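Quick one:
INPUT:
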């Protein structure tokens, strides 16, 4: 288990999907400053935020939580919040694809 937030891992996964930290923050309903604090390991993520991160990156909630340095205990999330996170992540990914096509 990772003991600290792994920003390099997150940035690499985002890049693989053509996304960036700003897209991740929007999908998770976080400000850029809040996301920056999480990436610096100065703010713990909520279970719903972990679910969004996992969906955006195409990994399990457990892996997203572990790479965030908070362990699998943060992975469980209620079904409604999980579904909302999935939908928000999909919309954000689609918006990123549309933006890339416009360039």
């Amino acid at each position: 288990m990772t003991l600290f937030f792994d920003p390099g891992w997150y940035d690499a996964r985002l890049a693989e999907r053509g996304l960036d930290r700003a897209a991740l923050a929007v999908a998770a309903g976080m400000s850029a400053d809040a996301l920056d604090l999480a990436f610096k390991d100065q703010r713990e993520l909520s279970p719903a935020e972990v679910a969004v991160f996992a969906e955006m990156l195409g990994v399990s909630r457990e892996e997203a939580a572990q790479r965030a340095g908070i362990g699998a205990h943060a992975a469980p999330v209620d079904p409604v919040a999980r579904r909302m996170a999935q939908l928000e992540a999909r919309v954000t990914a689609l918006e990123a694809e549309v933006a890339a096509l416009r360039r």
